Amino acid sequence: MNGQENMTTDDGYVSGSHLLQPGVLDTSHGVVLYLDDVTVSFDGFRALNKLSFSVDVGELRCIIGPNGAGKTTMMDSITGKTRPDSGSLFFGQTLDLTRMSEAEIAQAGIGRKFQKPTVFEQHTVFENLELALKCDKRIWHSLFGKLTGQQRDAIDEIMNTIVLQELANSRAGLLSHGQKQWLEIGMLLAQQPQLLLLDEPVAGMTDHETERTAELLNTLAGKHSIVVVEHDMDFVASIARKVTVLHEGSVLAEGDMATVQSNEQVIEVYLGR
Amino acid sequence: MHSNYQPFLLRLLGNSRWVGYAVALTVICILIPVLNLAVPEDSALHLSDYTVSLLGKILCYAMVALAMDLVWGYTGILSLGHGIFFALGGYAFGMYLMREAADAGSQLPNFMVFLDWHEYPWYWAGSDSFIFTLLLVVLAPGLLAFIFGWFAFRSRIKGVYFSIITQALTYAFMLLFFRNETGFGGNNGFTDFKTILGIPIATAETRIVLFALSGLALLAMLWMSHRIVESKFGRVLTAIRDAESRVMFSGYNPLHYKLAIWTLSAMMCGVAGALYVPQVGIINPSEMSPANSIEIAIWTAVGGRGTLIGPLIGAGAVTALKSWFTASFPEYWLYFLGGLFIVVTLYMPQGVMGLGKKLLGKKS
Ligand SMILES: Nc1ncnc2c1ncn2[C@@H]1O[C@H](COP(=O)(O)OP(=O)(O)OP(=O)(O)O)[C@@H](O)[C@H]1O
Ligand SMILES: [Mg+2]
User: Fold this and answer.
1) Interface pTM (ipTM) of the complex?
2) Would you say the CB of residue A247 lies under 6 angstroms from ligand 1?
């Protein structure tokens, strides 16, 4: 952890040196996430079938695809929840995600929002963010560490961003669905990840909330690399630069929104359901 | 929260928890000893030796219920084998007591003589040292918990599977300790203790000292548990209970957290067992029976999971009920216990504490 902090610049990317540093994110070639030939099967059924694609540093990538295309499974395998049967998964040039535990992957700088919003319902909004906050996550520090003023400010700032500052001391279980989604996004921001994976972030949100989320993601793009899985096409259109279409566990098409929407195969997959 | 210029005493009083500790301390170390030893026996205020030993037992059970609550109430891990840790602490201390009793007669304990053994087996080494015994009281249950927990948590065994395996663990140990050749007295276990540190064990004074030590140990554990659940460590534990995957993806390794609280909980049970044995004068493998461990879970459920005071109340209330039941109609106790568990699970998920909160809430 310390080594990583020394090596990184303010926005978290490794600067300068090309030395191979174990446990340190190296994105000097401009790629933050790299999947090659990844296959995941459940009892013979291939949820991911030789999936290959990559995400550049600072990119905001949208992933679309019909139900069961393997979008969530893809996020599961990036974050270590599901281990691929074959293929390689790299974070930057050097971090082999297939060899890291969930916690290690999170600490290395990948944050993830689940399809079903997952926050700590019995904890307050503030405590949720405190738990997510980037810091030493080992037992000793949790037992005896205290929040610094800086960390409190960071939490306050995030609560402002996700407009939950009024509810800082409310239990997260009492929040509305949309607010929980935002809290979870806030928890990701608190982790200060280089790469954010968002699984259907606007599901169940009102139009107004959806718009605000699009704004938020647009401001985050560039500072972070973001991968968004969404079904809501208007939302995708409002944030997407590059869209990847998944179908039956592999990439069907890739390009900007207009190109993808006019692609014959994509139309067939979406209409032929 | 408190302004700095408040006098220390006022701050102390303003914090009802410290008042609670102070009251409990006075009751345990002064009031009860005086009522037992100084007040004449014909007085209505006199506390009988029987009551003192029952209270002492309850204090030990309360420690176990508290330990259970840390893993079940706060971390969501239901153990149905906590009796093993309690019993191991008890056996560890029992070895010392047996050895003192035997050394006085410069002979091995009777059960070893019957086995035709001529010296203590290797794992009795050190049991003649009081200090070593104190270490063993926490290390034996701690080590077992650590090893068991490491395998179980690493394989991500959870929920009812975990509970069943803990039942199997305590049952297996019970069978092991039933064997005479295991070297712990078989089904009779250890009894006929004579002295602790050379002081006769069966006197009123020794009994009251053991009682007070149990009270102090319980208060210390309560204070430690408060510190734990109110630290970020405690918040991580509850987070693991409520959404373990979110904890992992936030960069925590739940294995370390579960293992730490699990092992600590087992050590607390060990201390409770060690204080229990000299007060009741016997330890045998029935303490490891699956039913005993289930009873521990019931104490915690009745009192209120996820509160620190609840389990203490639960242990006290259920034990008091039990001693009344087993005196009046012993054959119905297990039915009653089962019924109680069902009622509490269905209608009082927060136990007595939850009920109390509801009633108070309605009044105001
Ligand atoms: N643990 C599992 N065991 C068996 N099959 C699974 C498992 N997880 C996913 N699948 C299957 O893998 C396929 C891909 O699922 P996945 O959840 O990745 O789809 P998705 O693209 O996220 O769909 P949606 O848009 O509905 O969220 C589905 O057919 C699903 O049934
Ligand atoms: Mg999905």
Assistant:
1) 0.87
2) no
What lies within 8 Å, CB to CB, of B123 at 6+ separation is B183
Q: What is the rounded CA–CA span in Å between residue B151 and residue B147?
A: 7
CB B77 within 8 A of CB B232: no
Q: Which of A73, A228, A245 has the most ligand 1 atoms within 8 A of CB, as the residue to mutate?
A: A73
A-contacting residues of B 246-285, CB under 8 Å? 246-254, 256-257, 260
CB-based contact (8 Å) between B233 and chain A? yes
| Structure tokens given for B75 | 């971390």
Give the closest of B236, B254, B256 to A131, CB-based.
Answer: B236
The string of DSSP codes covering B303-342 is H-TT-SHHHHHHHHHHHHHHHHHHHH-GGGHHHHHHHHHH
Structure tokens that stand for B127 in this block: 């049991």
Question: Cα–Cα distance between A243 and A254 in angstroms, integer?
Answer: 6
In B323-355, which positions are buried (b, 16+ CB within 10 angstroms) versus exposed (e)? eebeeeeeeeeeeebeebbeebeeebebbbbbe
Q: What is the pTM of this model?
A: 0.90
State the Cα–Cα distance between residues A82 and A40, nearest whole angstrom.
Answer: 8
CA dist B56 and B36 (Å) reads 13
- Write down all domains in chain A, each with its CATH number in brackets: 31-271 (3.40.50.300)
DSSP labels, A56-96: ETT-EEEEE--TTSSHHHHHHHHTTSS--SEEEEEETTTEE
Whether B238 shows a pLDDT value over 80: the answer reads yes
pLDDT score of B262: 98
DSSP letter, residue B73: I
Residues from chain A contacting residue B260 (CB–CB below 8 Å): 139
Query: A94 pLDDT band (50/70/90 cuts)?
Result: confident
Q: What is the mean pLDDT of residues B117-129?
A: 92
pLDDT at B13: 55
- Residues 6+ positions from B182 with CB-CB distance below 8 Å: B176
Rounded Cα gap, residues B251 and A105, in angstroms:
7
Task: Give the residue among B325, B328, B210, B356 at the shortest CA–CA distance from B275.
Answer: B210
Q: What type of residue is A152?
A: R
Residue A25's alpha-carbon distances to A34, A52, B106, in angstroms, are 13, 20, 68
Please name which of A122, A110, A127 lies closest in space to residue A193, comparing C-alpha atoms.
A110
Across B287-306, average pLDDT: 94
Give whichever of A11-20, A39-48, B85-94 has the largest mean pLDDT: B85-94
Q: Side by side, which strands form the sheet with A225-229?
A: A110-113, A195-199, A225-229, A60-64, A242-247, A250-255
Residues of A with CB under 8 A from a CB of B: 79, 81, 101-103, 106-107, 111-112, 114, 118-123, 127, 130-132, 134, 137-139, 142-145, 187, 191
Number of other residues whose CB lies within 10 A of the CB of residue A157: 13
Domains of chain B, by residue range, sit at 48-291
Considering only CB atoms, B246 lies closest to which of A107, A120, A130, namely: A120
Q: Which of A23, A92, A1, A131 is nearest to B250 (CA)?
A: A131
- Report how many Cβ contacts below 8 Å link chain A to chain B: 74
Indicate the residue type of B187: N
Give the distance from residue A271's alpha carbon to the nearest chain B alpha carbon, in angstroms. Answer: 35
